[in-house]
Design brief:
It is an enzyme of class 4 (lyase). This protein is an all-alpha fold. Helices cover 68% and strands 0% of the residues. Helix 1 (11-25) crosses helix 3 and helix 7 runs antiparallel to helix 9 (175-186). It is globular. The protein starts with 10 loop residues before the first helix and ends in a 19-residue tail after the last helix.
Length: 334
């Protein structure tokens, strides 16, 4: 994560097009469109892919992330947050849109479904059946994770362990489908026996864990103010740690991720020069998913103003609301 990565040169032009398109599809007014522009999912994706893809491919990945964030928001803070039956029905509907025999859905009928189906049909034009299968598998895992997240709101943060939480959390951050999208973007296809090797899977898990841990730290202010209890930080607080001790604990978890990454590389075999080149490109990409999400977290308007994000990144100090006691409800801004 200490490496210098390169932003895709098409970022500015594609961001403008993608923001306008999603605002039109979702029927945003001027204020909503401006908020989406500040969220700037294009910024995040442009770090993932670096200089390795053209504007059209970058646009496909941005459109997917527009879908993912706004679809996911329904379960985080929207009308499906506590509606397990409604969440399951929505997920079944979304998964059905990946069926080749499903008729085209209109943007008027279901705007988010339209974006999801539209992006998948663009992917199908270039992705092999193997890569299409992998994408569908990772999307299904993500959606089932989101469903488990809705059900998890019945859980007590004082009784769950960090290991139990991370097993659950890995499915909810949408990083795995993005890994399949990177193969599409880079024009590679890792063979199944290679993608399933324990060393490569360990690197995937590290990338996902870094996204989850960074997010739980940098979105904590937003989570406290919105009443979201389930996070690494609150689990540690539930074990008797102060807020600062909990933040320090997440830092040690990040250090552990780095160690696991290098151990996985040490144990990774060679599959021959042709496949090894693809594996190296893939590893670079999944690391950049973690790093791009981190850079975006300081930049996006979802968690900080741009000036606040810059100061947090430079000083590594973050002003947080005083969280309520675990199991409490009152929020007092410090």
């Amino acid at each position: 994560m200490s490496v210098e990565i390169v932003q895709n040169p098409h970022y500015a032009e594609v961001k403008k097009e993608a923001d306008a398109w999603v605002a039109e599809i979702l029927g945003y007014n001027e204020k909503q469109a401006a908020r989406n522009s500040r969220a700037d999912f294009a910024y995040m994706v442009s770090w993932w892919v670096g200089p390795h893809c053209d504007a059209e491919t970058l646009r496909t990945l941005i459109d997917w992330n527009h879908w993912a964030f706004y679809w996911d928001d329904q379960f985080d803070e929207g009308h499906l947050k506590n509606d397990l039956y409604g969440a399951a029905r929505n997920i079944i509907h979304m998964m059905s849109l990946l069926d080749d025999g499903h008729p085209g859905i209109s943007k008027e009928e279901d705007p988010l479904g339209y974006i999801f189906q539209h992006v998948y049909r663009k992917i199908q034009k270039r992705a092999s059946p193997v890569l299409q299968y992998r994408y569908k598998k990772y999307v299904e895992q993500y959606m089932l994770g989101v469903l488990a997240q809705v059900n998890s709101r019945k859980m007590d943060v004082e009784t769950i362990t960090i290991d139990e939480f991370m097993t659950f959390r890995r499915a909810t951050v949408a990083a795995m489908p993005c890994m399949a999208l990177l193969e599409y973007a880079f024009g590679i296809e890792i063979p199944e026996e290679v993608i399933n090797h324990p060393s490569l899977q360990a690197c995937q898990v590290v990338s996902v864990d870094l996204v989850a841990i960074h997010n739980d730290i940098l979105s904590y202010k937003k989570d406290v103010l919105s009443g979201e209890d389930l996070s690494i930080i609150n689990i540690l607080r539930g074990q008797g740690h102060t807020l600062q001790e909990a933040i320090d604990g997440t830092g040690r978890m990040i250090d552990g991720c780095y160690q696991r990454w290098y151990e996985a590389l040490l144990n990774m075999p060679s599959w021959g020069s042709k496949i090894d080149r693809q594996v190296y490109t893939y590893l670079e990409g999944i690391r950049n998913i973690s790093l791009g999400c981190l850079l975006w977290s300081f930049w996006t308007g979802r968690y900080f103003t741009r000036e606040e994000g810059r100061l947090v990144r430079e000083t590594r100090k973050m002003r947080l609301p005083m969280p309520p006691p675990i199991g409490g409800s009152a929020v007092k801004v410090a």
